[in-house]
Each structure stands twice: as structure tokens, then as C-alpha cells.
Design goal:
It is a single chain. This protein is of the alpha/beta class. It has a single domain, classed as Uracil-DNA Glycosylase, subunit E, CATH 3.40.470.10. The protein is 42% helix and 11% strand. The strands form two sheets. It has a five-stranded mixed sheet with strand order 4-3-5-7-6, sandwiched between helices. It is globular and about 45 Å long. Bound molecules: uracil (URA) and iron/sulfur cluster. The site of uracil has 12 residues, from loops.
């Protein structure tokens, strides 16, 4: 697929995978290894009995907002931790904030966000009921854009180092939200999440819309909504993939946890 968005170019994933795995294996543990005595707080956070990692979503958000672990902190205006209910059944994972997200500190509120909202509406899924996060929490700004001209700056794909540095936050969110269905949006998120579960990602054009079983969850790789901004046919494919999500949600086994 050709695409004007530099995020959709193929990155060098072998180096990324090795670095990410090293960082992840020290942090990530499968959800069932953590007793899930979850208490939802008013802020939407949770408290768990496990104190070895992040203990609630609010703690992750606070750490993300103050994080300086990678150079993206130098050009961000706002970090974008992610948002949604702590007991969301569905979690969407994107790549990283763009201009509008960086301005507002919230995920998928720009043009790609409008496409995501439209797709959610198409299956009558309330955005407030899902958790939305990204692989990296600060906007990857292309090198030739300086921080003073962020508004005209170009987005780029996050590097392997940035992804590895940020990985603990998304893994903490996955563990605490413990969604029944994970929808990865685009290449970067799909590779990242599949790696966590020890799976190798093929091209998104081949695996999008498949319902994969990982641990106690289902995983549906999807195209990134920004791709639909450039290619109308992709939006139709995305609609079909969202229908699969809708059908999965309608299954009785998923309705009661
Ligand atoms: N693209 C992403 O991957 N994430 C966002 O939050 C917005 C655009
Ligand atoms: Fe920290 Fe992630 Fe932001 Fe880098 S992208 S500064 S690791 S929150």
C-alpha cells in the first residue's frame, strides 16, 4: 500500500522487536498472574492488590504527564496517556498522538479520531465505554519540525527506542483494564501488541479483521483510521472489521465477565 502518511512506511522492525522485547519481558506479566481484585475509583482508576507495578490507571496517567524517559518529551505540548473506563471491554490501541491530540492531551481527537468515532457509531458502540490508548504517549514530531512550529510540523512514526521507553505504560494499562477485546489500529500498534503475546505480525493488509485469541482476550488487528483519510476503500474494509467487532461484542460470553 502506498500512503502519503510517513507513519505507514515499513520501519525496521527487527531491531525494534529485540529492543522492545528486552524492555517488555522485565515488565509485562500475563493478566491472570495478577489477582484482579479491582476497585474502580471515582476518577476511573483502579486499585489492585498487586503493588509491584502500577497500581492504578491514574498513577500511569500522572507518570506519563511527568515522563522524560525519551526525547519526545522535549517537543510535546501535552502527553496523551489515554482514556476510558477501567472496566472497558474493548481497548483500542493507536500509534501515537498527532497535532490535535498533543494540543488537547487526549487520544484520537483529530481527523483520525473523527473516523474512529464514525466507525464506533456504525456499530453503535459508545466511545465513552471503550478505552483508547496509544503505543507512545507523546507526539512524534518529524525532525525537520522544530518545537516552536509544532502546528505546521509533520508527524512521523515513533522509533524503536521511543516505543521501548514508553512500553511499560501501555502494558500497565492493558494489565489494569484487562479488556476482553483489543483492537490494534495500524501497523505499529499491531506489531507491538502481537509481540507481547509472542506472535509475529504479518502485513496489516493481510491480517486486518482476523479475530485472534490471546490469553483471555480476543485481538482484532485493524487498519489505522488515518489510512481511511487517504484511501476510501480502506474505510469500507475498516467498516467490515468493525462489524466483526460488533458481532463479537454481541456474543453472550463476552457480555458477562
Ligand atoms: N493517531 C494515533 O495513532 N493516535 C492518536 O491518538 C491520534 C492519531
Ligand atoms: Fe515518556 Fe512515553 Fe512520552 Fe517518551 S513518549 S517521554 S517514554 S511518556
Amino acid at each position: 500500500m502506498t500512503n502519503e502518511n510517513p507513519r505507514f512506511e515499513d520501519p525496521d522492525f527487527s531491531a525494534l522487536v529485540v529492543r522492545s522485547l528486552v524492555a517488555m519481558t522485565t515488565f509485562y506479566r500475563k493478566p491472570q498472574e495478577h489477582p484482579k481484585e479491582l476497585i474502580c475509583t471515582e476518577e476511573g482508576g483502579v486499585v489492585t492488590q498487586d503493588l509491584s507495578d502500577f497500581s492504578d490507571l491514574q498513577e500511569i496517567s500522572n507518570q506519563v504527564r511527568n515522563c522524560r524517559k525519551c526525547p519526545l518529551s522535549e517537543t510535546r505540548r501535552n502527553a496523551v496517556p489515554g482514556e476510558g473506563p477501567c472496566n472497558a471491554k474493548v481497548m483500542f490501541v493507536g500509534e501515537g498522538p498527532g497535532r490535535q491530540e498533543d494540543l488537547e492531551g487526549r487520544p484520537f481527537v483529530g481527523r483520525a479520531g473523527s473516523v474512529l468515532d464514525e466507525l464506533l457509531r456504525s456499530i453503535k458502540l459508545d466511545r465513552k465505554s471503550v478505552y483508547v490508548a496509544n503505543v507512545v504517549k507523546c507526539r512524534p514530531l518529524a525532525k525537520d519540525s522544530d518545537s516552536a512550529i509544532q502546528d505546521s510540523g509533520r508527524d512521523r512514526k515513533p522509533t524503536g527506542e521511543e516505543i521501548a521507553a514508553c512500553a511499560p505504560y501501555l502494558k500497565g494499562q492493558l494489565r489494569l483494564v484487562h479488556p476482553q477485546i483489543i483492537c490494534t489500529l495500524g501497523d505499529t500498534a499491531t506489531r507491538f501488541i502481537l509481540e507481547i503475546y509472542g506472535l509475529k505480525a504479518g502485513s496489516i493488509s493481510r491480517i486486518h479483521g482476523r479475530v485472534l485469541s490471546v490469553d483471555n482476550a480476543k485481538l482484532i488487528p485493524m487498519y489505522h483510521p488515518a489510512a481511511a483519510l487517504y484511501t476510501a476503500e480502506l474505510k469500507e474494509l475498516m467498516k467490515k472489521d468493525f462489524k466483526k467487532l460488533g458481532a463479537l461484542l454481541a456474543q453472550k460470553t463476552l457480555v458477562s465477565i
